[in-house]
Amino acid sequence: xxxxxxxxxxxxxxxGSVTAGKLGHVLMNRLIEGGFTNIYAVNPKAxxxxxxxxxxxxxxIDGAVDLVVIASPAATxxxxxxxxxxxxxxxxxxxxxxxxxxxxxxxxxxxxxxARRFGIRFIGPNCAGLVxxxxxxxxTLEARPPKGNTALVSQSGAVGGALMxxxxxxxxxxxxxxxxxxxxxxxxxxxxxxxxxxAETSVIxxxxxxxxxxxxxxxxxxxxxxxxxxxxxxxxxxxTGQRAALSHTGSMAGSDAVYDAALRECGALRVETLEDxxxxxxxFSFLPPVEGRRLVVVTNSGGPGVMSIDKADExxxxxxxxxxxxxxxxxEFLPPHAGLKNPIDLTVEGTGEGYRRSxxxxxxxxxxxxxxxxxxxxxxxxxxxxxxxxxxxxSQKPVVSVLQVGCDVAESDNLLKQHHLPxxxxxxxxxxxxxxxxxxxxxxxxxxxxxxxxxxKGNLPGQGPVLEPDAMALLKENGIPVPPYRFxxxxxxxxxxxxxxxxxxxxxxxxxxxxxxxxxxxxVLNIADDEGAGKAFDHLRQIALDRxxxxxxxxxxxxxxxxxxxxxxxxxxxxxxxxxxxxxIYTEVLKDIVLRVAPVDRTGAEEMIRSIRTYPILKGTRxxxxxxxxxxxxxxVNFSRLPFLYPDIAEADLNPVFxxxxxxxxxxxxxxxx
Length: 674
Fold this sequence. Notes:
Strand content: 15-25%
Mean pLDDT: 92
Number of strands: 28
Radius of gyration: 31 Å
Largest sheet: 7 strands, mixed
Distance between the termini: 43 Å
Structural class: alpha/beta
CATH superfamily of the largest domain: NAD(P)-binding Rossmann-like Domain
CATH architecture of the largest domain: 3-Layer(aba) Sandwich
Number of domains: 4
CATH class of the largest domain: Alpha Beta
């Protein structure tokens, strides 16, 4: 009922001054401009504005009022909502600023309580309003967009305003626009839920600066992207104030990297710029789904065609040569000097009919096409535009255009818009749209929900820092493979432990005050005999004399495996996050780390492994045996469950983890409790 009142109100009351230049005056003019009729002005003097009647209170209005748009001073907002609630109003848009964004959190809480008392749902405060082109509702300070099927949800009014300003020029229709500002009540989560089922919306553009409940946001986003695409700009990419991964990986991933991982995991498409968001929304708004990654470029100019193919190769599209059958079909109507290798170059002699037939034939074996026409000022582009329209209709596959120059290029662009075919300024931009649309189809087909959360086992053993022998026992208990090991508290026990494991061995100091053992010389490698074992124990005891020495832990020397790193931490928004990457020198030099919100299922673990740039090293190169990727994936799954089994885990670091052709072993572990 509240969303019905918000987007399809029977009547709208606007509170604020009707004086020219004031927000109330602007908002009432915008409502009139949009074609909405049942508008009422509410202010202490009961002043109207033109055809809009004025009232001192919403309760005095005779007609039905479902929505109040508040542009009066911050100190009045609570009372306005009380007045609205007593009049039966169910929705509000709080344009007024001066609340939590200005340090007035208490005032914002009063507003929330007043709205909650009467069951009023609202957007804002500190927002730019909303638009519903399907109900002629223009309750915003921003530009009026054309009617269409793209919903725009923005924490920032200015960002939404910029996109709507371009919409008319670029031919992108908007279904609804919501600027939710501080998000004190309705925010991105509830708005996404609404637009998931909104029949007037087929693609959602979302601009966010922060998310208050990361896990709920992810769950809703996964549900939405199974039905319609969501294109996201998340600002603050360079903010590394909230670390997202642990000691070794923390320097490589900040909170933005966790957002990146979360959005991708949910099937959303993150873009960096408003131009990219606009381009992609045009693609989804106009085109049929891109069901594969095979792309053909048809052009009348070699250079731009080759540049488009280069971009396609760079971003992972398949722009391979046509089959011999397709080449033969093209040769039947193209001139002998036409290029047939992809790009298909019609040369300057390319005609509208040439474009039509080339595109139609090519799309019998390619999944999508880019049509480039680089004309001259004295030639007509309209025949080419018509050929593109006809080919798209015939093939029912995605066709995007780049029409540049021509005596009638504006008219040609309008023809494409009328037939819902997007036209871009460069081939590279067109190719990026096809690539991201194909990416969405792949993401959409993945499993859409979190792994089941395991039941809590309890807290970590002991008090304070978790000692390595206890940590290794915990890993083993939870299905994470560890090598044979022994703990020794004195010299004699240490030598006996080395004998039982078999030389060569590695010996490490055990002390709650030495977490990074190698920094203190707390690791002795390649111990070959009893004498070396005794000396190693003496050395480790000596370096930890004043650091609460507890003993040593001993392992067989592990050789021949490839080293990876696994880490866990808790993100402020999203909770437990798992990090994976190649270990050893690659960790610090290449910073090749991939993140995923925990827990991770088997499919997610396999995707993590394939996602790192150095995956070929694990897969095996130059005759090397491949690493045991099945065992590694299972280790990632079990590791990602630890913070749910033991809620007091703050961070975990497995570095290195040795992956052999057969099996996996953890080489070192660090667990920190909250």
